[in-house]
Fold:
Amino acid sequence: MKNGLTKLMLCAAMVVGGNAMAQEAEAPAHEPQKVPDAEGIKDTWNYFYKGQGQGPVLVDAKLCTEVGKEGANKFECTMEVPAEGIKANTQVMVWQAYLLPQGDSAEDVMIQTKQGNVVRETKDVKLKGEGWRTRQWTGVRLGKAGEWTVSILRGDKVLKTFNVKVL
Structure:
C-alpha cells in the first residue's frame, strides 16, 4: 500500500511540476525598460511632492474597447480601438494616465466627442492625486457612422485628440 501511494505521489508531482514549467515557459518576459536620467526623476519627485495647485500632467492616453479587470493587466487598456475603425454604437473607453501632485485634485478635465464639427457629448473627469499614477477611463458611445474626434480637454486646452472612423 505504501509503495503504491509513493508511486501515485511521484506521478502527481511530475504532472504538477510539468504544468508549472509549461506555465513558466508561456509567461511573457519583462522587456527591458529605458532608465530615466537622474534629473528627470528629480523633476518628477519635485512635481509630485511640491507641485500642488499646478494640475495634472497627461502622461498617456488610449482609446480602448476593453480595460483589464484583474490580474497583471488590471486597470490597463487591454484592447485598443483598431485603426480600421469600429461599428456604430460601440462603447469606447478613453483610458488616461496622469501624474497629479500628491493630495491634489482636478475637476477641470473633460472628454468631448465630436462627429465632424458637431459636439455630441462632453463628460467631466474628476482626478485625485493619491499615488504616482492616476488612471481614469471614461466611457463614450460613438452612435453614428462617420468621422469622429475624441478629445481630452483641460479647461480650454486640448491635451490629446483621437480620430476615429465609425462604420
Remarks:
- Residues 1-27 have pLDDT under 50 and may be disordered.
- The longest helix spans residues 2-26.
- The CA atoms of residues 72 and 117 lie 39 Å apart.
